[in-house]
Amino acid sequence: MSKDPVIEAKSLSVNYPLGKGLFGPRAYLSAVDNISLNIEKGSFFGLVGESGSGKTTLGRALLKAAPISEGEVFYRDEDVSHDLRTIKGLELKDYRKRAQLIFQDPYAALSPRMTVRDIIAEPLEVMGLTKTRAETDARVREIAAKCRLNLEHLRRFPHAFSGGQRQRISIARALVSGPKFIVADESVAALDVSIQADVLNLLKTIQRDMGISFLFISHDLSVVAHTCDHVAVMYLGNLVETAPTRSLFTRPRHPYTSALLSAIPSLDPDDTREAEKLTGEIPSPANPPKGCKFHTRCRFARDACKAERPQLREMAPGHMVACHFAEEFDFSENGALQSA
Amino acid sequence: MSLISVQDLTIRFATDEGLITAVEDVSFDIAPGEILGLVGESGSGKSVTAKALMRLNGGNTRYDERSTITLGVPGEAPVEVLSLKRERDMGPIRGGAVSMIFQEPMASFAPAITVGQQMVEQLLIHTKMTKSQARKHAIEMLDRVGIPDPARRFEQYAFEFSGGMRQRAMIAMALSTSPKLLIADEPTTALDVTIQAQVIDLMKDLVREFGMGILFITHDLGVIAQTADKVAVMYLGKLVETGTVRQVIRTPGHPYTRGLIDALPKLSDLDAPLTPVPGDIPSPLNRPAGCVFHTRCPLAKPGLCDAVVPQAETLPDGQSVACLFAQDIYSKEGAA
Ligand SMILES: Nc1ncnc2c1ncn2[C@@H]1O[C@H](COP(=O)(O)OP(=O)(O)OP(=O)(O)O)[C@@H](O)[C@H]1O
Ligand SMILES: Nc1ncnc2c1ncn2[C@@H]1O[C@H](COP(=O)(O)OP(=O)(O)OP(=O)(O)O)[C@@H](O)[C@H]1O
Ligand code: SF4
Ligand code: SF4
Ligand SMILES: [Mg+2]
Ligand SMILES: [Mg+2]
Q1: Per-residue confidence band for A338, with pLDDT thresholds at 50, 70 and 90
Q2: Among the atoms of ligand 4, which is closest to the Cα of residue B299?
């Protein structure tokens, strides 16, 4: 696998202004706070983290669908290179073709009055990627077949489909413009386990056969463990840990990651292993704690944690952790994969 | 007496394409303080069943005349839910004794008013609280479901919340009136595991404190294993298996339940391929004859499974399974 990143973010921040001037005139909420990350070509990059930690916002910023307040983001493939901070006009149009979003909710995302064929064809028409109706049809059929939708399906309206089929329709729509990078935001969260397995297999096939890179946002850690090759963990707008999947699940190194893994509900009703409870208030992203943002809930916090914000540093090959005292901890016990 | 008793529930919808059967002969009971998990394929009729308990299905709904749903709140006269005729009689089942957390969080919030206003209004309708008590209680509930800075969030609109926060606000709203029966339709789908653990603890507290019963719809079998007392598995409108959590998850008796458990991504083996139940769910417009699962069942016997409707049978260890070969499968493979 090539090591070139398709997405390179450097010190990226996304700030939203806070309404009503409650915190004075220039108050803002830093939904993504100084994040640097590389998504390698062809990788299936997982993003997990607390609700409200900024996962969706980060995904949208990488698609140039949320404001890039500070820092830089670059997109690169074999043909082009885009600087997303300054991109506009024709270049932005080109980027829209190369980077796509698969929505979380297959029910809400599809217009009920359009046939499946029209839903899939719409991006081609809006972006002017095909010249004739025949060309559009051919392209739609090719992509539909990849997503296991047949000709008869194409004539119908979305309400006639099951959740999994609808999700395949959204995937087909995202694929039709020939993207190289896809953000899948909780794309399997609403699906039952069997359909979920089916859709995940489809996404993996697409990644392999079409060389598409994925940012896969999910709160389901077992799904992430099975599908992603690399995982990043977010907390209050920061990346606290990023590592190859196996490394993260065998030996989490950040106290927050360890708490996350310990909270995965076990399939065994008699498994009484208590989730490591995170104590303390969940801080507001509008007013995050100083120093390590996790210190208000970390059971290992000490004075140094309140004073200085830890930066990501490499502790094992490709395994980066933002915690002052990570060397002292051994969370292998909470690693979901017990190392043999 | 059961808090809710559902007997032979059959639900059909009148559509342009004809009458479709979404739920067929479903029966279950929930006692006060009990959590029943309902799992099953997308489109199998879980939400439709849940909405029936509150009579929230659309105008094209036809409940079969043999179907009964009885709400038995301790100390109050039982309510025949399907016999309620007038909107104004539905108070007890809509936000009074029964409260629901919907699958689509956005749908439960009115876009034009703040989350706080909406919570307060609901409390004023269903409880005897004053406005200032309601406000205090609403903020307290937002806090209990783990919403940071609840007093500020109280003043915001739902669209300003992250997906998971919206879901928690909805849970806070549903629990704020202390319902006797909570219907939770995929309540933790958008939540990360630590918040999920917190919300589940809160629900369990309410079960203990107030004897609340819960119908818990989710496809997360781990969550079911850790919260529910009993599980019911649904496929194409039928309950194919019911039993205690241990019975159903440890020793699933129905081929569909086995398929569901096999499809789960397991942390013990990351390289194991994910194996979906093969094929697609048939359209409710042409429900298969015989066993509804026969078009996808690896054990289906032609001539039998496509002709004979299996009745629920009780296996030696107590769970009830609707499969013609339930006893055979059980005696061959047995309980572990
Ligand atoms: N358009 C917006 N205006 C103001 N604040 C916003 C907006 N979108 C998101 N936020 C805030 O930014 C923060 C991060 O939200 P985001 O949706 O990225 O979180 P998330 O990690 O995707 O959470 P979830 O897992 O719940 O979906 C939250 O505090 C949220 O309230
Ligand atoms: N008002 C209605 N008119 C016609 N058909 C309906 C109506 N409401 C639901 N249905 C159909 O009833 C079936 C059962 O739907 P239901 O929403 O209960 O599924 P579910 O088990 O909750 O699925 P999911 O896991 O995807 O939420 C589906 O085929 C659905 O299309
Ligand atoms: S830096 Fe301190 S507070 Fe932050 S995770 Fe590490 S030990 Fe905990
Ligand atoms: S009755 Fe036949 S088709 Fe149905 S679950 Fe049993 S073996 Fe499979
Ligand atoms: Mg999100
Ligand atoms: Mg549903």
Answers
A1: low
A2: 7
CA of A266: which chain B residue's CA is closest?
B222
Burial of A159 from C-beta contacts in 10 A (0-12 / 13-18 / 19+): exposed
Instruction: Calculate ∠ Cα B271-B273-B277, nearest 5°.
Output: 155
DSSP B43-60: TSSHHHHHHHTTT-S-TT
CA distances from A32 to A28, A250, B102 (A): 12, 27, 29
Give the pLDDT confidence score for residue A168 in this predicted structure.
Answer: 85
- Angle CA A286–A292–A295, to nearest 5: 90
Distant-in-sequence, close-in-space partners of A105: CB < 8 Å, separation ≥ 6: A190, B104
Whole-number Å distance between alpha carbons of A285 and B148? 9
Q: Counting every residue, how long is chain B?
A: 336
Q: Each residue of A90-141: pLDDT tens digit?
A: 999 999 999 999 876 666 678 888 999 999 999 998 888 899 999 999 999 9
DSSP secondary structure, A252-280, as one string: --SHHHHHHHHTSPPS-TT--PPP-PPPS
Q: Could you give the CA distance from residue A266 to residue A272 in angstroms, rounded to a whole number?
A: 9
Quote the Cα angle for B263-B267-B268, to 5°. 100
**pLDDT score for B248:** 94
Angle between helices B193-210 and B163-176 (to 10 degrees): 0
For B277-321, what is each residue's pLDDT tens digit? 988 778 777 889 999 999 999 999 999 999 999 999 998 888 999
| Amino acid letter, residue B26 | V
Residue A163 CA to chain centroid, in angstroms? 21
Strand partners, A74: A8, A83
Residues 6+ apart with CB under 8 A from B51: B57, B100
Which two tokens mark A287?
Answer: 């007013």
What lies within 8 Å, CB to CB, of B149 at 6+ separation is A284, A286, A287
Q: Which of A267, A233, A239 is nearest to A252 (CA)?
A: A233
Instruction: Work out the number of other CB atoms within 10 angstroms of the CB of residue B160.
Output: 16
The residue among B318, B302, B329, B319 whose CA lies nearest residue B240 is B319
Strand partners, B243: B231
Choosing from A240, A258, A276, A323 the residue with most ligand 3 atoms within 8 A of its CB, the one to mutate for a pocket test is A323
Q: Which SS3 state, helix, strand or coil, does residue B103 take?
A: coil
List residues bridging with B183 in a β-sheet: B100, B215
A5-235: CATH superfamily = P-loop containing nucleotide triphosphate hydrolases (3.40.50.300)
Which of the 8 DSSP states describes residue B91?
G
On whether the CB atoms of residues A249 and A261 are closer than 8 A, the answer is yes
Q: Which of residues 173-232 of B touch A (CB under 8 A)?
A: 186, 189-197, 219-223, 225-226
Q: Which ligand is nearest to the CA of B46?
A: 2
Distance A51 CA to ligand 5 centre (A): 7
DSSP A16: E
User: What kind and span of H or E run contains A146?
Assistant: helix A133-146
ipTM above 0.85, yes or no: no
Measured in degrees and rounded to the nearest 5, phi and psi for residue B284 equal: -60, -15
Q: Number of helices (H) and strands (E), helices first, in chain A? A: 11, 12
Structural domains of chain B in order of their starting residue, each with its CATH number: 1-87+183-194+212-336 (3.40.50.300)
Instruction: Kindly list the domain boundaries of chain A, sorted by start residue.
Output: 5-235, 241-340
Query: Tens of pLDDT along B65-78?
Result: 999 999 999 888 89
Q: Does B277 touch chain A (CB under 8 A)?
A: yes
